[in-house]
Amino acid sequence: MSHLILARSRNDMRQHLKIWRDQGKKIALVPTMGALHNGHIALIELGKQYADHVVTSIFVNPTQFGPNEDLARYPRQEDEDRAKLCTIGCDLLYAPNLEELYPQGFQTRIELGAITQRLEGVFRPHFFSGVATVVAKLLLQVTPDLAIFGEKDWQQVQVVSTMVKDLDLDVTILTAPTVRDPDGLALSSRNAYLNAEERRLAPKLKSALDKIAHQLKTNPAGLDFIVGQAKQDLLAAGFREIDYLEVCHSLTLEPWQLGDPARILVAAWLGQTRLIDNIGTS
Amino acid sequence: MSHLILARSRNDMRQHLKIWRDQGKKIALVPTMGALHNGHIALIELGKQYADHVVTSIFVNPTQFGPNEDLARYPRQEDEDRAKLCTIGCDLLYAPNLEELYPQGFQTRIELGAITQRLEGVFRPHFFSGVATVVAKLLLQVTPDLAIFGEKDWQQVQVVSTMVKDLDLDVTILTAPTVRDPDGLALSSRNAYLNAEERRLAPKLKSALDKIAHQLKTNPAGLDFIVGQAKQDLLAAGFREIDYLEVCHSLTLEPWQLGDPARILVAAWLGQTRLIDNIGTS
């Protein structure tokens, strides 16, 4: 249990970081929307391995939610989050108010091209612009040496990496594997929305991904059939709708072709809850 | 006459700057598209006043030109530019190739809101997104302490300042007043396009601005009439078309209202050449 500094303003945060920076310390940033679970903890652990100090940010970013999405009910539990950050040994929590990130008159946004127009981009058209803008702001406010993202949001990681490269942001992006419950369900703050029956069904997403990964390894020619079947199975099991279930080029997110590095990604609805997941194939 | 370092690549440029930075020297960046004239020289002079080393960049940025604009014929004269930079005592010329700024796969752009949707934004819809993106990239590649822009491109200065503030870019923006020929014509690389007759007419732009500034001071109630008359006078004198001639809030560029800080801005065509100019009212 260590001391956790809490900074609500950019200037306060920067003053603390300046001390570490003047000492030549390496700083890692873990950007989150709070409601921290073991997936986040794994990111912070990774930060501790590669940097001297870890900063976690908690900011439920309104610009990445669409008008009919779950901004209002997104879980907020800062007291529990702070206790977890203390336990894990995070050094500083940056939990800015809206005004610190989007002051009066704010009107800049960062847009990416092709990589944001597939998968999540189709179903959440404003999502990646919101993510890219807030991540750029956090990276420029904190100016960490490293920033750490979870592979659970695979497309987001690729979008952020592309933006960092395109804009010459001076930061190294590290990623950590998805953390799962024993039954395979990927940890997500949104799992809290699931009722008991939905929670029971949820791990079938991972099973569907596994089945496709197996097919890809053994007989890629039969892939389309297996993907179609996996969709039908999910719907039959009780998923309300499947936004996408696709095999993609792991970096560009374009439809997979023989020889490409592959990533299998899914987004599907259980009742009112939208879950996403993905796996690699190596 | 001093030594001018020429860097074509980001890495080469950064290596030179690191030496100065490690010595604690202050660095100013003057971003240009080349075809340097005394307006640019004034920016570099300002940089020399406020910083220890001045970096000038020359990059004719294709993304800020529309499909029917003058990208192909924009004047390129690097040898003359380099001689001028030597004479003035600029320390480093960063003249990157296209690939240094827009490598394969580049797909990020920066968009601003209201401030980019008036005046130039109406007539050159991709212009400010191109400017914001390339300026952000130059600022992030060079990471200067100061960056210097000319008031000749007044709306551009406001767009860049807004972006720098919105994205928390750690740089101070300085501006230098427009440099004019003795007859009032604002210096511009595009003045090279003018034939003798057009060159003779061109200073009337500045006269129109002056007339409106006078009206604003003496009788703002009669402003609309005077602006309308100034437009007619320009057309009668031989200007082919007036894109805009407007009194605006000097920072937001919204239509001017009594009590606002004012800026008077004009864009008009002489033959195939589009000229812009602006003045304040203090």
Automatic annotation (TrEMBL), chains A, B:
The keyword Plastid does not apply. Beta-alanine binds at residue 64. Pathway: Cofactor biosynthesis; (R)-pantothenate biosynthesis; (R)-pantothenate from (R)-pantoate and beta-alanine: step 1/1. CDD domains: PanC. Its main location: cytoplasm. Coiled coil: none annotated. Catalyzes the condensation of pantoate with beta-alanine in an ATP-dependent reaction via a pantoyl-adenylate intermediate. The reaction proceeds by a bi uni uni bi ping pong mechanism. Homodimer. HAMAP family: PanC. Belongs to the pantothenate synthetase family. This is Pantothenate synthetase.
